[in-house]
Amino acid sequence: MHHTAEYGIAAHWKYKMGDGSAAVRDGDEDKFAWVRRLLESQQESDAQDFFHNLKIDMFADEVFVFSPKGDVINLPAGATPIDFAYSIHSDVGNHMVGASVNGRIVTYDYVLQNGDIVEIRTSKSAPGPSRDWLNTAKSGSARTKIKQWFKKERREENVMRGREMLEQELRRLSVPMDDYANEELILPIVKRLSFTCMDDMYAAIGYGGLTSTRAANRIKDELSRIARPDRRTAIEKMSDAAERREQQAFKERKAVHGILVDGLDNCLIKFSRCCTPVPGDDIIGFITRGQGVSIHRKDCENYLNRRHTPEEDARWIGVSWASQITDSYVTTLTIVSRDRAGLVMDIATMLNAINAKVRSLAARDYQGTALVSVTLEVKSLGDLKYIMGRLNNISGVTSVERNGK
Predict the structure, then answer these.
(1) pLDDT in tens, 45-63
(2) Which residue, among 79, 62, 89, has the nearest Cα to 139 in the 3D structure?
(3) Is the pTM of this model over 0.85?
(4) CA 197 to CA 187: how far, in whole Å?
(5) By 3-state DSSP, what share of the chain in percent is helix, strand and coil, each rounded to 5?
(6) Which terminal residue of the chain, N or C, has fewer Cβ atoms less than 10 Å from its own Cβ?
């Protein structure tokens, strides 16, 4: 401790302030800006990320680069244009669309060298940072600002991503999903993790403020300590669990392309092109001649117009989605917008930014109105609604509708 006090961080501070200084002079607060950055990083990171940032920002070698105006910016060794952009301002980083070093265009993962002149290109229509930037950025402050952007701008995406990550981790830890689905058991645990509701916890996991491993381990520990008053004997529970597993296995054997057909097993399944259902939709089956069972949404125009016709009434059959679905499903959206330049490019850029799997995209003009048809693959109705919400936010778009309504 004495050696550290004499020659360690304290001595470094004294050297920074200069000999004979009794107090911090005017302007000296800029010399300790890294302290403020560490405090900001602590507010948005868990303990492991904070200590990682601490080691990088305090003890790493530095690289000195120049802005186009000649300002000197010091960054950690190995820093990239992403670190440079966020060191200038959060808005510069969030709206960055490209970078050049010494007049030459470079990639985002380019490693800056001492003396480089770095210029950042920005655009108001930039889609924002990518999650890959968290792995590319070297400074803790840049990573923190990226997480802050995801926390503020991508809440719906964070909730979906966080839910998937947490449920995957809970299954890995063999946590009973029946207990996890019981809100009376889970909500008190969520509040002990300092969140007001499940979506807040999912969002924190999605943007990186909380790791799914930590949350899953805490939930598992808390559930193991809870003794419910209506808990039955171990033999009864084991019997019920075995019965549920048997029923689940039976259902999964019958599922074809994620569909369970009432009273039929391993029959041919096809999804109707008129309404393109996806998991989460209310669905109904129609027994075709020689092509198995055709799956329709219950709000499909064909189903609503034909369900009560005498010759077809007996051919409608009950169907449902299986509990475990891994397939992707093709559906089509129609986007109605004011016709303007760059509309198709904005739609394509947004779909690429959220990693949507696009099968086709076509556009046409109709009396000053642009009609854009997008066929894509989704895993659930929740994913589809999120994509439709993002499309609705594009400038000029007046409506986004699914085909078949």
Answers:
(1) 565 666 556 555 554 578 8
(2) 79
(3) no
(4) 7
(5) 45, 20, 35
(6) N
